[in-house]
């Protein structure tokens, strides 16, 4: 009796979804636990208890604690790699609006993976040399949409920014600040309000005066 190909493919899809959910459950738990206690203080037993799974199940997906930490950080960078370009493409052709869309998308990813984002600052030194190099490479790659938008804005005569790399990393740090200082900012503003306010501060320094009125909504200026 031959297997039904359609049934087999459905079963494989179910298994993949289940594996993805389990992996997500473990990584979320690892991010929370390592933020509270630091990676050195976290054991696989503690991680299993936090995730509500067995230690054996964790080892089905990861070779050890170092792999878990790397996976937690890489997941944030992978989310940047998929989410940010999509937001930029949806913003149209205007470089300033593409820059705004990129920054907003970065903030949204940071908010979604807030605990993991904090780990990139606190625990990256605990990674192997190869792990740290991978993180550095991915960080440069995922910040490229910001640099590209800044360069395009300068070329179009819309932005005054002689150093696109510096602007890109300033914006990245502002996005990360939502995770690092969430305890404070959440008292007075939502994520959207935070992103809009930080973006307006940056764009007021970057947008050329002669085109400022075209971006009144982004700058927080009253309509003319």
Would you kindly provide a written description of the structure presented here, covering whatever features stand out?
Helix 4 (65-90) packs antiparallel against helix 5 (95-112) and helix 6 packs across helix 9 (164-180). The protein has a domain at 65-209: Tetracycline Repressor, domain 2, CATH 1.10.357. The longest helix is centred in the first third of the chain and has 33 residues, at 5-37. It is elongated and about 60 Å long. The protein is an all-alpha fold and 224 residues long. It has twelve helices and no strands. The N and C termini lie far apart (75 Å).
Topology:
Blueprint (H helix, E strand, L loop, with lengths): L4 H33 L6 H8 L3 H7 L3 H26 L4 H18 L1 H9 L6 H14 L1 H12 L8 H17 L1 H4 L5 H16 L9 H4 L5
GO molecular function, one term: transcription cis-regulatory region binding
InterPro entries: Cro/C1-type_HTH (IPR001387), DNA-bd_HTH_TetR-type_CS (IPR023772), Homeodomain-like_sf (IPR009057), HTH-type_TetR-like_transc_reg (IPR050109), HTH_TetR (IPR001647), KstR2_TetR_C (IPR041490), Tet_transcr_reg_TetR-rel_C_sf (IPR036271)
Keywords: DNA-binding, Transcription, Transcription regulation
């Amino acid at each position: 009796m031959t297997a039904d190909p359609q049934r087999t493919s459905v079963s494989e899809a179910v298994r993949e979804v289940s594996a993805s959910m389990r992996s997500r459950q473990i990584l979320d738990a690892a991010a929370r636990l390592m933020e509270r206690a630091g990676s050195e203080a976290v054991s696989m037993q503690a991680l299993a208890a936090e995730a509500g799974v067995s230690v054996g199940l964790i080892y089905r997906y990861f070779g050890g604690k170092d792999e878990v930490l790397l996976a937690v950080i890489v997941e944030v960078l992978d989310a940047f790699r998929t989410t940010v370009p999509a937001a930029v493409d949806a913003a149209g052709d205007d470089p300033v609006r593409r820059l705004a869309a990129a920054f907003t998308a970065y903030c949204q990813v940071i908010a979604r993976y807030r605990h993991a984002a904090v780990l990139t600052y606190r625990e990256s030194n605990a990674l192997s040399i190869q792990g740290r190099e991978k993180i550095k490479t991915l960080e440069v790659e995922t910040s490229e949409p910001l640099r590209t938008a800044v360069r395009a804005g300068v070329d179009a005569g819309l932005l005054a920014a002689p150093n696109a790399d510096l602007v890109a990393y300033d914006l990245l740090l502002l996005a990360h600040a939502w995770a690092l200082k969430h305890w404070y900012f959440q008292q007075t503003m939502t994520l959207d309000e935070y992103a809009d306010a930080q973006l307006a501060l940056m764009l007021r320094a970057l947008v050329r005066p002669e085109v400022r009125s075209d971006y009144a909504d982004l700058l927080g200026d009253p309509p003319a």
